[in-house]
Amino acid sequence: MKNRFSKILTVLISLIFMVSIVGCQSKNVNHKESNKNKKKDIVRNITVWICNNDKNIIRDQIGIFNKKYPNIKVNVVTMEPKDIIVNYINDCSNNKGLPDAIEVLDTNAAMLINGFSDKFANVSQDSDIKKGMFLNNRINNLSRKGKVYGYPWYTQPVFMLYRSDILKNLGMDSADIRTWQDYVSLQNQIKPQGKNLMTISSISQLYDIQLNELGTDFFDDNGKLDIKNDTIMEANEFMYNTLKKNIDIDINSNSDKFAAFNNGSSISIMATISDVLYMEKTYPNLKGNIALERLPAFEDGGNNTAYINGTNFMISDSSKNKEYATEFVKFITGDKNSVYNQFSVYGLCSSNASAYNYDKMHKQNSYIKNNNDMYKMYINSAKFFSDFSYNQNYAEIRDYIINNTNADITKNKDIDEIINDSQKYLDQRYK
Predict the structure, then answer these.
(1) Can you tell me the distance from the alpha carbon of 40 to that of 37, in angstroms, rounded to the nearest whole number?
(2) Is this prediction's pTM over 0.90?
(3) What is the pLDDT of residue 332?
(4) Which whole-number Å values give the CA distances from 70 to 65, 319, 330, in the listed order?
(5) With contact defined as beta carbons under 8 Å apart, do 80 and 86 qualify?
(6) Are 328 and 65 in contact (CB under 8 A)?
(7) Which of 188, 192, 155, 150 is nearest to 172 (CA)?
(8) Mean per-residue pLDDT for 39-60?
(9) pLDDT for position 7
(10) Which of 41, 166, 260, 350 could form a disulfide with 266 if both were Cys (CB 3.0 to 4.6 A apart)?
């Protein structure tokens, strides 16, 4: 009897112990769930520095982002692109608190990566980067010694728009303009009518696009300055002949290239997709009279694609909210609704190749003569964007070459002599 009582007592103690354990485990699970729910309810604040031109775009993106991530509050500070660089470098140097992420133009990225790479998150192990989801040339512009310091955002591919109605009256077709030489030869037909090839506000716009098309930024593969090589000289000569008025392009900082194209005084215009959307709203009378073509190439069959205003996001490595800043940046550089808004409203093209498969991105535009699918045209041209990285001194060197060429034209110097002089000066400046 005693043994039986002992056994029953042992079983009861065991049951009480087991119930106690289960109860504790249940409390732990509930506590963890409670903490998890509380974590979801916590509002996370991130600060992002954005270029002034993109303040409306980013407002839209935040609205779309917060539908999915309502507890991540994005605080935006807008600045001029150069001020973003200056202020970030200043804050790094003075050990001030850094923003969680910043928007950086392609032409400014090298300055930060070369001097302050330790301040930015290395995202080379991100699955989207490793899978090659972004355009190679955009990734290369953010890379140094095998590391990647940011996510490419958008590009603005450049096309040539022609007044197809004017060309038709001259017995010409825009599809026949394959090279820059073909393009220049048009002036023989249009000049007697008082028309010019196109209107631009500065020669640097044309020079930038042609250098991008050629895939060069003044430095060779070994990092040596070389503005006299055969490739760059093609752009140098075109720039020289334009400044010398041998090529009938109107350079006027006060002119409106869209108005000139609309009134027919210019028969073509270098335009981005955002330019096309602007013209569609502003000049509906041109509907059906505009042909959209790729840029002329320097040689028949050569590259005829280029882009401008490539921009990126770089994330501060010291950010306490790096996880949330990354979530935001990856969202606006790849989420289909975000990318669609950027393209359909603002004409901006994603650098994330996964967006190429978003069906609603593809729409024919009846404003253009042949009802082109502009996103498809972007995709097809993006495959051939030149693969190069902007040197941190790109803008300074470009401006010197242009200004020196413009000054020496009045001295009747030819292009070879001008570029040789420029090379000597720049060699001393950038030893």
Answers:
(1) 5
(2) no
(3) 96
(4) 8, 20, 16
(5) no
(6) yes
(7) 188
(8) 90
(9) 52
(10) 260
